[in-house]
Amino acid sequence: MKTLRKIAGKEFVLTLAALLAALGFSSCTKKDKADAAYKYGSINIPALDGSLCGAPIYIAYEKGFFAEEGFNAKLISADTESRKIGLNNGTIPIVNGDFQFFPSIEEGVNVKVVDGLHNGCIKFVVRPDSDISGVKDLKGKKIGIDEIGGTPHQVASLWLEQAGISALQKDGQVTFLPFSDGNLELEALYSGEIDVAAMWDPLGSVAEKAGKAKVLFDLSTDPAFKGKYCCFLYASSKLLKEKPEQIASLLRAYRKAQDWISRNPEEAVEIIISGKYSQIEDKELAVELIKSYEYPSTADREANKQSVEADVEYFVNALHDIGYLKSEPAKFAKSIYSFVEVNAL
What we know:
The protein is built from 15 helices and ten strands. It is α/β, with parallel strands linked by helices.
């Protein structure tokens, strides 16, 4: 009986192992078959952060532009460190980000700027009864930001320094206070804990529309920033070197999405709402913001020829001037930008 039980047990284990192997093989086969339908197979694109800035990613996914260019795109959540690691080893091919990335590149993250994504997306707001009306009024004030070294902090620093006000904490001309949650930052503004809230859209605009704040600074319209890309597309240097045709195909998908958004902003917002990509309660405001970002259409690119390289150089020089970058500006700007022939097949 013991022998029979042992034999039966061995047969069960062998049968179970065979079944699990078959299921695993079946799963892999399904995945392989799915990827085989796409020229370049599966890719992961960080996108699920709730930002309106990521609209071209949501639209490229929903309208099938990634698929048209040969990618089985998977939209994922990824924090800053995960993005850096993925870009360095090539498991993440491309991310969208602003000039906050430049110091990270200087510190060794192996990515290149390959295109511009959009203009604007940050506002500074004050209380409706505030006597602050311009940058000169910020001396001695407290400014709320999301994090030290983050883009709202960098933008505020540039604005201050260009007006002759030191943005360095040690000089004491302004004080920056970080808030991990934008709603807490607004509450601090309302209570008087801070004088200015430097924030990502849409919170500042929502507060303004509700009559709880007034806009002091708008990145999309301020003379020092208007008409310049604030958000760029960054590609993995590894993939640019090893698989440049894939990066070109990805950029074509992004450009198709940018063109579509520029012509269909209302429908773009509908898609973002239905896909739950961003928490939007005020559709009309979201459409206004999408339009203000000036996603370039194909016609715009042909007519205006906005220079990504020139915008990179502008922000490199500006960040160098206030001490955020140490490298020689012209050389560094040239080293972090890579032209990609997007129309090449």
